[in-house]
Each structure stands twice: as C-alpha cells, then as structure tokens.
Amino acid sequence: MKLENKVALVTASTRGIGLACVQRLAKEGAVVYMGARNLERAEERAKELNEQGCTVRTVYNDASKKETYAAMVNEVMEKEGRIDILVNNFGTSNPQKDLDIKSTEYEEYIRTIDMNLASVFLTAQAVIPHMAANGGGSIINISSIGGLRPDISQIAYGTSKAAINYLTKLIAVQCARDNIRCNAVLPGMTATDAVNDNLTDAFRDFFLKHTPIKRMGKPEEIAGTVLYFASDDSAYTTGQIVDVSGGFGLPTPVYGDMIEMKNRR
C-alpha cells in the first residue's frame, strides 16, 4: 500500500494506459479520481474497482473544452482537500490527417499540438498551487517514444510529445522548491484499443522487428513505472524522461535486419 492516504487524479482514464494507471494506483491505496468525458463509462469502471475494495471516483473533463481542466482540479479539491498525484494521460492524434511535413495541413498540426499541450499545461497549472500548499506532490506526464524518435509520419503528435518532454523538465525545475516532482513516462507500442484500431498488422510487425523485447508493451507495464514516480520510491527523482518501449531505438538502426540475417544462417 505505497499510496495510502494519497489522492490521485488521472486524465483520459476509462481505457488503455489511463485505466491501467487508475487500477494500479487504487490498488496501492490511493483515492483515485478518473478524469473523463464519458462519465457513464467512467462510473462503470469505478464501480468495478470499488467492488474489489478500491476507492475510485469520477470527475468530468473534456479535452475539447479547456475550461474543464481547472474545473476538474477544483472539484477534486472541494471533495478531498488535496491532490497528491496527477497523471496527465490524455493525448490525441488523427493518423489519417497527421502525416509528414509535406502533407499535413497547418490547422491539423496546430490543433493536435494545442490539445496535447493544453492537457498537460492547464492541468498542471491548476494543481500546482494546491500541491505546494499541501507540502508537495508528484506530476507524471504520459508522453511517447515518438517524442524522442522522429518518425516519417504523425509530425504533430511527435512535436507535441517532444514539447511535453521539455515541459516536464521545466515544471520539475520550477516547482522543486515546493517539493513538487515532475517526470514523464514514454510508452512505446502498447497493446491498447487505440493502437489495435489504427495500426495494421504489417506495421505492427515491422515496428516490433526493431524492438529488442519483441512484443508490444502492456498498459499495466506502463502503469508500473507511473506507480514508481507516484510513490516515495522516487522521492529524490525529478525531471526524468523515461521510455518504456522494450528497447525501441536503443540498438543500431539496422538491428532488425541484422537479426533476420542471423536467423537465416
């Protein structure tokens, strides 16, 4: 029970990595609020976890309505009087429109960057004064390996995640004296509904060809790293950008081809 007596807020948390974070934090003793646009779905997930002995509640947040970020934080504060852990999990991209520099419309580029950065900036900005008043806290931003490794597509998504990585370090430096830590977790290809719905089997196989741990990550594995940053196990750790990607991008760029050649011998 590493998070007993702690209050956590997780955005975009009704499925995938967000839901896995809710489950992990709640099972470690935290009171966890699920920030969600679809409150009916969030209530269903919360009910399931509460029946397992967890304490999970819901709060409204719609990424397309920026005023709901501060409203979400204020509602949790009114009910609990504190927020110790913030997990900024929201992220969006339209693979059909978010292409390369030659093909992506500027409006789509700015829309994606604006939504992804706002989800971190506005929520952190709203929660930091409360954390400082309560003696500190931990902010964990869910970024992406795409913020480190340039891709041939999704230029807006990659730009936004690279910016979130830097914003993470800025928050860490600017809020350290208030005992507020800020770190980022960068998932690689993770087995979520969003990935399964948007990626072909051929692309998935090609990606994993260049991943030393030759499989997709699991949402609960991302949540494990989030738990580390949320708990006192990382009390002296801030401003870190940690990729949880099975080693993607770590070896030589021709790693996948070399493995295939070796296997054919």
UniProtKB/TrEMBL annotation:
Keyword DNA repair (UniProt): no
Gene3D superfamilies referenced in this protein's UniProt entry, alphabetically: NAD(P)-binding Rossmann-like Domain (3.40.50.720)
Domain of life: Bacteria
UniProt xrefs under InterPro entries: NAD(P)-bd_dom_sf, Sc_DH/Rdtase_CS, SDR, SDR_fam
Pfam families registered for this protein in UniProt: adh_short_C2
Keywords associated with the record: Lipid metabolism, Steroid metabolism
Entry annotated with the keyword Lipid metabolism: yes
PANTHER family: 3-OXOACYL-(ACYL-CARRIER-PROTEIN) REDUCTASE, 3-OXOACYL-[ACYL-CARRIER-PROTEIN] REDUCTASE FABG
Family assignment from sequence similarity: Belongs to the short-chain dehydrogenases/reductases (SDR) family.
Protein's name in the database: SDR family oxidoreductase
Originating organism: Bariatricus massiliensis
